Amino acid sequence: MPPPAATNLGYTPPDGGWGWAVVFGAFISIGFSYAFPKSLTIYFKEIQEYFSVSYSEIAWVSSVMLASMYAGGPISSMLVNRYGSRPVVLVGGIMVCTGMVLASFGTSIIHLYLCVGVIGGFGLAFNLQPALTIIGTYFQAKRPLANGLAMTGSPVVLFTLAPLNQFLFDSFGWRGSFLILGSIVMNCCVAGALMRPVNKRVQPKPTNESPKRNGGGEEAETVNTGAQSADLLNEDSQTASKGQSNVHKLIDISLFKHRGFLIYLAGNVIMFFGFFAPVVFLAPYAKHLGIDEYSAAFLLSIFALVDMFIRPATGFIGNTKWVRPRIQYFFSFAVSYNGVCHLLCPLASGYLGLVVYAVFFGLAFGMLSALLFEVLMDLVGANRFSSAVGLVTIIECGPVLLGPPLSGALVDIFGDYKYMYYACGVFMLVPGIFFFIMHYYNYKKLDEEQRQSVAVEMKTSEETVELKMNQDDKTVDAADG
């Protein structure tokens, strides 16, 4: 495991104050980043008929948008490290707005891929990354709770956009709706305005509460996780040389020697093949079963409503003294629970069955989403979080890009959605079991390393004391002589 990083940055994260305004800004920014691609699925059936394309072809719209959001992670990280969160989020909001306005004039499905997928996706990356990173500069002891509240933005925005999109489509068609959505997403600029840099001149204050180690390899860096994250966010006053140092952190290849990071990365690559497709195809699946448009859209609202309440609850549970020291097991359970839900989905019959599935899926998806980035920060430490997120997102963009289209291809081949849900269930359940096994191994190794470290420290202390006693004896002998 890598050695502990220095943690004395000369200030204590406020764990409140303006930090809650920052959480609200992150709530909006993260909400649009994750909910926007899902909410657009309301228009898929009509766009599919308009351009005469297949299920897999229409699925590429959300898929390219999500993949661009993940692929843009490293670029967003570099911009955040150089300029701070506020200007990056402002630019991101303008980019998504521009993409939606241009898409409203689209003449082919390729046009939508470029405008909604690429331009809009990179704009969402500029919203997501700064929001995830800045929370670590304002919060230390309450970080899981703050992350859980911020991640609640996704279901809240989805809960609002799902029925709104159906209303907009009925009133203005998909082209007019895209124009209006472009103006709505400009609210991300308001979120960015709230993300002012943390005041690093705050005097250190004594505290009796220190966060527990949650499965990473460096105890010392965890005690001041919020403080270390601030080292990654030198804002407008940052010099060019410091910016180059932060870019070096972004591409920290030594993370590929970090045991916890490799476990997280390996499981997530498999998991993301089945992560987004069940949400993307929930409304089209309902319409396929003969359910009317508004009822199909309402399934997304039910899913989002449950998701909305489970995320802060998950953050609260994850912050307790019983769960936080072993939070990786909680994450493993959430991944496995998602897999079980998808495997059981085809058993649901009628609209009532889909409502039950939406409720249980909302619980599973909300738990997983609330923990997704918290456990990564827990594994690598907040001082390496920006670098880790950059590497993770650029690698994960592959399965994020291919997952929904592959799932759509299964629907095209078999003419039924149940095989798609079976496949997604396997893609979630297998990494869930993998996480349980590997985190048990990781925790065991960490305990062994901690015991060895304590033994070495004790031995070093004994040798130091013995050496000092010998020196004192020599001094006394010399004085007597």
Descriptors for this entry?
single chain; 481 residues; mainly alpha; Growth Hormone, Chain: A; monocarboxylic acid transmembrane transporter activity; Major facilitator superfamily (MFS) profile domain-containing protein; transmembrane; cell membrane; symporter activity
Give the domain tally. Answer: 1
The main sheet comes to:
none
- Report the structural category: mainly alpha
**What overall geometry do the principal axes of the alpha carbons give?**
elongated
CATH architecture: Up-down Bundle
CATH topology call: Growth Hormone, Chain: A
Query: Looking at this structure, what is the CATH superfamily?
Result: MFS general substrate transporter like domains
State mean pLDDT (0 to 100 scale): 79
> What's the tally of helices?
20
Total E-strand runs: 0
In N-to-C order, the SSE pattern is: HHHHHHHHHHHHHHHHHHHH
Helical amount: over 70%
Low-confidence spans: 1-9, 202-244
Task: From the alpha carbons, calculate the radius of gyration and give it in angstroms.
Answer: 24 Å
How does the SSE layout of this entry go?
Layout (H helix, E strand, L loop, with lengths): L18 H21 L4 H8 L3 H17 L1 H11 L1 H19 L5 H30 L4 H9 L1 H32 L2 H8 L24 H5 L1 H6 L9 H11 L8 H13 L5 H4 L1 H7 L4 H26 L8 H18 L5 H31 L4 H30 L3 H63 L1
Protein name: Major facilitator superfamily (MFS) profile domain-containing protein
Membrane topology: Multi-pass membrane protein
Subcellular location: Basolateral cell membrane
Provide structural commentary.
This is Major facilitator superfamily (MFS) profile domain-containing protein. There is one protein chain. The longest helix is centred in the C-terminal third of the chain and has 63 residues, at 418-480. By secondary structure, this protein is mostly helical. The protein has helices at residues 19-39, 44-51, 55-71, 73-83, 85-103, 109-138, 143-151, 153-184, 187-194, 219-223, 225-230, 240-250, 259-271, 277-280, 282-288, 293-318, 327-344, 350-380, 385-414, 418-480. The chain is elongated, with a radius of gyration of 24 Å. Helix content is 77%, strand content 0%.
